[in-house]
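Forum: Protein Structure Q&A
Topic: Joint prediction for protein chains with partners

I've read a bunch of threads here and the consensus seems to be that you should model interacting components together rather than docking separate models afterwards. I'd like to see that in practice. Below is the full input, 588 residues plus whatever partners are listed. Could one of the regulars post the assembled result?
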Amino acid sequence: MTQTDFAPKIRSVGLNGVLVTFGDKATDTANRAAIAFRGAVDAAGWAEVQESSSTLVSAFFRIDLATHGFDTIRDRLAEVLSAQDWTTAQLPEGRALWTIPAAFGGARAPQLGEAAEAAGMDEALALADLTSARLRVLTLGFAPGQPYLGTLGQAWDIPRQVGLTPNVPAGALVAAVRQVCLFAKDTPTGWRHVGQSAFACFRPNSTTPFPLAPGDEVQFAPVSEAELARIEANNSDGSGGADRVLIT
Amino acid sequence: MRALVVRQVGPGVAVQDLGRPGFLAKGLTQGGAADTRAVHEGAALLRQSPNCAVLEMVGTGGTFDATEDIRIALTGAVMTAQIDGDAVAWNASHLVPKGAALVIGPTRSGTYGYLHVGGGFATAPLLGSRATHQSCGLGALVSAGEALPVATDKGRDTGMTLSPEPRLTGGTVRIVPSMQTEDFDPAIRALFEATEFRRDPRANRQGIRMDSDSQGFTNPKALSIVSEVIVPGDIQITGDGTPFVLMAESQTTGGYPRIGTVLPCDLPRVAQAPAGAAIRFEFLSLADGAAVQARADAELRKLPQTVTPLVRDPAQMQDLLSYQLVGGMISATDAPLDEG
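Posted by a regular:
Agreed with the consensus. Here's the joint model:
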């Protein structure tokens, strides 16, 4: 899990910004450092930073490098980097813990058995793993508001399937490479469909169009197919029966 | 309601603006017009803010009429245009009287044409922008029968023109090194720079595929990287070695390595290159690229000062016989010849 031999890298991204990278593999430690570092720079409120984001292993600061010289920005970021060990830093405040109901296996999530087999366990154990873990939103992407959640145990380092499943529905929980993704919309995918929720990750007409934020934590609460159907029937706001509490 | 009524419309017409920044962390890319320079040109012609929403048109425009007199400007890819049957100039502003038929299209040169209206389109903003981002469910293509609301226009001038920076036929595109450039062998980078590419017909607002006769630009070192942030203009090399220039509606992150990034000021040249047009990429150092971009930004700010009255130069008329040359010479003090 830890990667102690990686010295953080500061690189320009075209003339559009600066990327600070904490690992060359998608580890939980690198992700945690990226989120913490982004939070710290954001809190400092640099005028040059137009917006920021975090990916699996990096923090990105959108800065107009035609106006602000890269060397100066790099030196300033290097100073923040050396101020502490970001792999053990506190995550930013204001993060939420989400409890999201989901049906696992059966007709609504037909690949739980297949995924369990790939992970070398039976379905019951797989279900226990997927619902007991508090997973972190590692990053949002691919589709607006769509979270990549991690990190599951080593057994879940299962590859993507060779062929694509043509259409996995919005709200699906799909698993691969120790991560779970919660689909924002219907998507063809090589990840395995292990659960189904009614949680809308992108609500363009809502006051909270992007409910999740990187650093938030998610725990899935197993429900029956009948209970999921009941939630879906009363889901005009897209919340999918989820519960949100602040962690800090 | 002050509106532009859509009688007929092509299949690739949508409201755009300069995009929807601020949501990178949420997985939503900025989007907006494919050729942002054209948005600035239209704003300069109408003497209004470049933040005004416009219509982006691919292939052909449509037939429109207005519920009140409106000013328009036409920029970007050159398309045919008539107001009540009379041909009007591209890269210019015109008056469309109430009820007159404005007919736009097909494209003669370039890819993305723009129709600007005085005051800008006043469609309902979503997340702070009027930019249509179809794949994310933000807005939809324009369809026949729609009435597109137009905001109040504080300007009066029409019959103005400017000389657009030439960018409709491909050519040399300047790029700077990016985060993964050094993961590519120097030999591969040199080959990339020496190769003449052709814009593939497979192109859209997410990305543009670049064809070539080369063997491809795959580099084993760059094959297994962690998915990383994407910025507009990034040139990603897919698994089979094909470059794609990523455009306004690309995803926010991607797992293919980027060999370089197109300068923002040269991205309109990529957007406008028609299918088959030749494109070459030229590496500049980051410092040189920043200097070129800073000059381009300064020129963009001066664009309104380059706008001049539209004078009909017979040498530049595309269809001389369609103009009534004698009729236009009745009076030396006649109204500017902008409304026919």
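The first strand of chain B starts at residue 3 and ends at 9.
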